[in-house]
């Protein structure tokens, strides 16, 4: 490790209800600053689960991509996306397209995959006029606050994600799998422990069972790690859910979650999950030019409703394999 990569950082501001905030000094060379302070920044994330860096004055997508590259070794290409994104160069993406008026509740990115990012990188090119924070919540605190009977059932059974791909809502087959070729999609599903079936019209239905609680691959901490609430029908705005049920039927929603044995998750359970998330949430409004790093296993993230234009770029890094996280549910790829 070079001496520059061990460069110290100014103190991190720790305020209740906010993520850790580090005030950096703009040098005109944000990628150089990121390279110099990479190890120190990652040490802050290891200690606190996330950090918001303010003052770098990030200016464009190319500069942000260069900063991301210096903070991580190789950025991941997204697979199994649930919503479309704009793609920038070098596996840098826009935030997922999600209605500005709706809360995007807490989740761990791609926690339904067998491989997922250990580190999330965010940068703000345009801050909204109101709301729109990328909020964070400590997954161990959430796990500790949930009723033991509920978490024990999820540990025992896991959770089940069911998806119905169509051309109207959510990511298309090509966006989710990187191809529309039926044979290639089936091969991917078999290799990634995803059950699949095609309908006569060419639509695809998939089911994948995953662990709801894992251990952090570095610290061994037990973490509530899933997208049970986020991808459940009861988190969708009531008028949107009603429209989707009328359009597709209650059993063919674009995505839904259930207990690992297939039992439906009641609305009050989803509300409980979201309430516990909210009680453990920290948030800070974006300012244009901000940078944020989030440990994707230890820390859930979400997005508040907002008004005005909002452009936040995202990258995923530090690939983690589920099998290195002590999953509680057996997963067999075929």
TrEMBL record:
GO terms for biological process: antibiotic biosynthetic process. The keyword Oxidoreductase applies. Its cofactor is Fe(2+). Gene3D superfamilies: Clavaminate synthase-like. GO terms for molecular function: dioxygenase activity. It holds the Pfam family TauD. Keywords: Antibiotic biosynthesis, Dioxygenase, Iron, Oxidoreductase. Residues 22-316 form the TauD/TfdA-like domain. PANTHER family: GAMMA-BUTYROBETAINE HYDROXYLASE-RELATED, TAUD_TFDA-LIKE DOMAIN-CONTAINING PROTEIN. This is Taurine dioxygenase, alpha-ketoglutarate-dependent.
């Amino acid at each position: 490790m070079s001496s520059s990569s061990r460069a110290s950082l100014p103190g991190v501001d720790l305020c209740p209800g906010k993520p850790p905030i580090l005030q950096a000094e703009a040098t005109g060379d944000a990628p150089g600053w990121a390279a110099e302070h990479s190890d120190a920044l990652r040490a802050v994330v290891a200690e606190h689960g996330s950090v918001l860096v303010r003052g770098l004055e990030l200016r464009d997508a190319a500069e942000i991509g260069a900063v991301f590259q210096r903070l991580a070794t190789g950025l991941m290409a997204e697979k199994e996306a649930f919503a479309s994104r704009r793609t920038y160069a070098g596996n840098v993406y826009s935030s997922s397209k999600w209605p500005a008026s709706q809360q995007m509740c807490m989740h761990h990115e791609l926690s339904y995959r067998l491989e997922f990012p250990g580190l999330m990188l965010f940068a703000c090119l345009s801050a909204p006029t109101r709301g729109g924070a990328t909020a964070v919540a400590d997954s161990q605190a959430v796990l500790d606050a949930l009723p033991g009977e509920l978490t024990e059932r999820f540990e025992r059974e896991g959770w089940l994600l069911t998806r119905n791909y169509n051309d109207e809502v959510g990511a298309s087959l090509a966006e989710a799998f990187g191809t529309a070729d039926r044979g290639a999609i089936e091969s991917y599903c078999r290799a990634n422990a995803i059950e699949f079936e095609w309908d006569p019209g060419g639509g695809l239905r998939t089911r994948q069972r995953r662990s709801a609680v894992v251990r952090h691959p570095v610290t061994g901490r037990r973490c509530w790690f899933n997208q049970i609430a986020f991808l459940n029908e009861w988190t969708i705005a009531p008028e949107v859910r009603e429209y989707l049920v009328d359009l597709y039927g209650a059993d063919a929603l674009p995505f839904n979650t259930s207990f690992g044995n297939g039992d439906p998750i009641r609305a009050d359970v989803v509300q409980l999950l979201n309430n516990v998330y909210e009680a453990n949430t920290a948030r800070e409004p974006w300012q244009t030019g901000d940078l944020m790093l989030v440990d994707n296993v230890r820390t859930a993230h979400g997005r508040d409703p907002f008004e005005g234009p909002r452009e936040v770029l995202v990258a995923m890094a530090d690939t983690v394999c589920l099998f290195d996280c002590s999953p509680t549910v057996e997963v067999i790829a075929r």
